[in-house]
Amino acid sequence: MADDPGKLSKSAILGMVAMAFAVFVIANDFTALSVAIPAIEKDFGTTVNTTQWVINGYAMVFGVLIVTGGRLADMFGRRRAFFIGSAIFATFSVLGGLAPNVWVLLACRFVMGVGGALMWPAVLGMTFGLLPRNKAGLAGGLVMGSAGFGNAFGPLLGGALTDTVGWRWVFFLNLPIAVAGVLITYLVVAPDGDRDKREKIDYRGMVVLTVAVFSLLLGLDLGTRIGWDTPWSYGLFSMSAAAFLMFFFVERRARNDALVPDDVIRNTGFAAACLTVLAMSAIFFAALLYLPQYMSHELKFSAIECGAGLLPMMGTFAVTSFISGRLYERLGPKVSVVGGAIFLAAGMFLLSRVHTGTTYVDLIFGMFVLGIGVGLFYSSITTAGITCLDPARASLAGAIVYMFQIAGGSIGLAANTAIVLSNSNFADGISIAFLVDAIIAVCGAVVALLFVGGTLDREKLMTAWRHKHRAHA
Length: 473
Hints:
By secondary structure, the protein is mainly alpha-helical. It folds into two domains: 1-192, MFS general substrate transporter like domains (Growth Hormone, Chain: A, Up-down Bundle); 263-465, Up-down Bundle (Growth Hormone, Chain: A). Helices cover 81% and strands 0% of the residues. It is built from 20 helices and no strands.
């Protein structure tokens, strides 16, 4: 880092470029494949019930192992964890592109989830480590901005590759991007220093948390497909509840070696950030699923048109995320997080006015407002959560925040699906679900106002206000 706290060194800037590459490959991969599913079904002669696991299987493994990946990165080195995760991700991307049948493809996707679970928290830890503490907002903005750009570009890239050279190139493209990220990281990010060898791996905690999260996510997924009133749903949710309870006792016995150490659990600011993310994540996930569904069913858009149709939201998400770092530094965490939550609520309220006669043009402003909320909220809440804890816990903190995002999104999708399917009119079902999401977002904004980001930083607000008036003058 540079001696001047207001100026970034060349190595820090290059390191951030490497992190942006890494975030892009993870985010792009997730959405690029969504438009390639029909082509995969056709090539392998299978149905959506099987090919959906190309997306779901990866996301589930990623969400289940993310906390373990964060803890291992903090313990044994983020740079090292990133290299190992990138190697796994890139290798099995290539093998997935060469897969002779759908079962080999699914196996490769599951292992890619392991690589992603190592990469993501390591990237978060390294990005926040590259910058001084007073530039933490810039780190959060870079990560979420790159993720937004990758998410927005993914459907367009996936559709273009699928329609020209074939869906397999969606996998092959991950290799050069991952290699570029690894090379730049190797050259500009300092090697990991010596870690505290007294810490031991909490194998019991890892196993129990894996069972708890996996049972929860699988139960939510199956509940939306085969029904909630089934032995499978009851069994999986019971197993998840029992495993979470067991995890609490296992972690108390592990003490300093716990997967989630005591100083993390007892940090009220961090807990508030995680709960806020849990409440708000239903909104983004619901929009990602049901806006393209509306475009496809009601507006008769093609797959590539549905991907392009999300650009007002995803593009705004990416741009706002990059800008949010400066806003976070000027306004402080509370204003940034609450402001993002308010935009999320407003965006969902606007989109909840959808009906059978709604045109695409009618959706644009709501998607634009929602994109601002997503970009401002997620970058700010990630930064607020990570900076609540000691810098040595950065990867673990980022991983836990993301786990709550995955869990909240899965629970929210299940609730949204139940609402949509219970209504005979598809558009009306989406309208009611989005209105419920808007109300939840208002509740999340209240929680953020009361508990996230400490007290309101009046000095930063006054400084920003004076700066604004000088600019106008």
